[in-house]
Amino acid sequence: MSLSPDQQRSLRCIAGLMIPVSTAYQVPGADDPVIFADILASLGMDTADTIKALAALDAIAGGVFADQTATAQNDAAARLRDAGGPEVLSMGRVILQCYYRDDRVVRSLNLEARPPFPLGRTLAQGDWSLLDPVRARPKFYREAPE
Amino acid sequence: MLDPVDVLIIGAGASGAAVAWSLTDTKMRIVCLEQGDWHKPTDYPANGRDWEARQLNDFSVSPNRRGRVQDYPIQEDDSPIKIANFNGVGGGTVLYAGHYPRFHPSDFRVKSLDGVGDDWPISYKTLEPYYAENDRMTGVSGLAGDPAYPPKQPMMPPLPLGVSGAALAKGLNSLGWHWWPSDSAIATTDYEGRAKCINLSHCTSGCAQGAKASTDITYWPQAIRAGVELRTRCRVKEITVNEQGMASGAIYFDADGKEVFQPAEVVIMACNGVGTPRILLNSKSEKFPNGIANSSGLVGKNLMFHPYAQIYGYFDQEMDGYHGPNDCIWSQEFYETNRDRGFLRGWTFEFTRGQGPVMAAVTGMATNRLPWGEDHHRAYRRLYGHRAGMVAICEDLPEEHNTVTLDPFLKDAHGIPAPKITYKLSENSRRMLDYAVERGSDILRAAGAHDVGFEKPLGHGGWHLMGTARMGKDPTRSVVNEWGRSHDVKNLFVVDGSLFVTSAGVNPTCTIQALALYVADSIKQRLATLFD
Ligand SMILES: Cc1cc2nc3c(=O)[nH]c(=O)nc-3n(C[C@H](O)[C@H](O)[C@H](O)COP(=O)(O)OP(=O)(O)OC[C@H]3O[C@@H](n4cnc5c(N)ncnc54)[C@H](O)[C@@H]3O)c2cc1C
Prior knowledge:
The complex is a heterodimer of chains A (about 150) and B (about 525).
Chain A: H1 5-18, H2 33-41, H3 47-61, H4 70-83, H5 86-99, H6 103-108, H7 132-135
Chain B: E1 5-10, H1 14-23, E2 30-33, H2 51-55, H3 63-66, E3 75-78, H4 110-114, H5 124-138, H6 162-175, E4 180-181, H7 219-225, E5 229-231, E6 235-241, E7 247-253, E8 259-269, H8 272-282, E9 308-314, E10 329-331, E11 347-352, H9 357-366, H10 376-383, E12 387-394, E13 403-411, E14 417-422, H11 427-446, E15 450-455, E16 492-494, H12 509-525
Parallel strand pairs in B: 1-2, 1-8, 2-5, 3-14, 8-16
Antiparallel strand pairs in B: 4-10, 6-7, 7-8, 9-12, 9-15, 10-11, 11-12, 13-14
Helix pairs in contact in B: 1-7, 1-12, 5-12, 6-11
Bound molecules: flavin-adenine dinucleotide.
Flavin-adenine dinucleotide binds near residues 34, 204 and 512 of chain B.
């Protein structure tokens, strides 16, 4: 199962409406060519749900979503979002999982663009003296008959 | 037909590994059948940039979502809490967070102390030496001196508090409530050939570093070196019986899908609280028309999860995000029964550090905190890295109407009936969840969080599977006796979470493994009279 060309165009439009490009934060939108290629390649087990969400979007828009005017697209997208449901959540999840692993987006969050392994991260020990009042507390578990 | 073996263990997860290792002392021929595979450190999501996406897909906690050939489907429409598991060498410990609390002494005497549930046929004292042995085999980090527990000695120092732990601890201190660093099955120093934790991220999709004690890297290597044969991709369909009504072995599908019979002198079930009753119920014969070991009718009944409440908030300061294991600190302020609260028994709060970039967005959108359009980026930056919170692990009481049965329609890839879960939240659980959400919100506010939210019960949180082949002295009220042997079939044992009589308000795995070591020891001590 894969998306038709119309469905692909509509998915790209809705991705861009969901997360638009931002000059303030210097990040691309989710309809950026690299990110969108990742989204298409990553639909996997969410393909069927995404197709259903896009069909709902077309139904709200009264035709292929990608072919509507900007105002009609904004209106249909808002209505889809308000209607919600598992298919819309699945479609949104695929968009988000690809967007928030893009190097440019990750760097804009002051994170290194790398997988967790093998370098790992550091974690502050924190102030262990915070435990002093709890250490001073008498035992409070219940004894139980044997 | 294959050569007979002395002991056939079914399932290579938390309990199967522990019982296999312990029984190697006997020099018996031991074979374990596991439906899943071994996993290499390079298989785990933390190796790639798509690590969070893989946690939602091929490493999802839901077997129905993963849908791997090693998984079996589960019919769970009649349960508000969905099953989470992992099918492979290590079982659920491959994905577990590694929280490793023991039961309290009072957890074994629920009926005597609080008049609900049942008492266990054993006590904290019975299990204490097995807890200690299991802690050593596993490698537990933590801190001695917790006033909520009888004395115990972790092997390694606790995980760091981090920014999140320190902020939450301040909140707890201001309320005068208990907290303590969590006992964790995560190495904080190099331990017996395992490298220490380097904070890859949360641990619930496998540990690429090998710092988390999943049994594929703790018990199994030692058991195999001592002679146990572990056969992977072998899915058991049923336990067979002979004319004397004893278990004679198991029929399984091997990696090529061929049906094979493995004869055995002793059969040990270690398939977890869903997988074990499923196979017992599917083992029907003339002698056992309702499934093997089921004269009490209790196989598959009394299913317990821990209903979870998740409570979280957002802080102005930056928290730990996904840096470091989820394990952090816990609180047992509300563990023991206080009748004034309107419910019996209690829970543990386990505090969690934060989320990765993708999960922050996914949950932000699912909870309507993250808009579509222009404002998305500003809103996201207020959420990402600013969240911390907790889960409340509420004690579930045994109720016969909460069940694992065989689904009449759904089957796995080998045609074996899938388990069907029927589960209703009790009134006691509902009240406890409500109360836990209120107290959790108090803690978050005291710690300085705003925008506090919750989910109860946590829908995807059916990861603790207990009670479906309970132990007890009375054969009409239990499936196995006080040392894990079936009342009906004297060479059939259960060692997994199915054994639990009550669930306590803590994660179950260290108790499951202590029980497996205890059952193994009971077998070893009775070898000459085992079937009497
Ligand atoms: C995401 C997640 C987080 C968790 N976090 C924690 C935690 O922090 N602390 C904690 O204490 N617990 C935690 N748990 C629970 C923990 O994993 C389980 O309690 C524990 O693994 C159960 O042990 P078990 O031996 O009963 O079964 P399992 O470990 O589930 O092992 C059962 C094994 O049997 C195999 N099997 C089943 N049926 C068959 C068959 N028919 N034929 C052959 N093999 C079969 C399965 O493939 C599996 O490998 C978590 C679980 C999950 C999924």
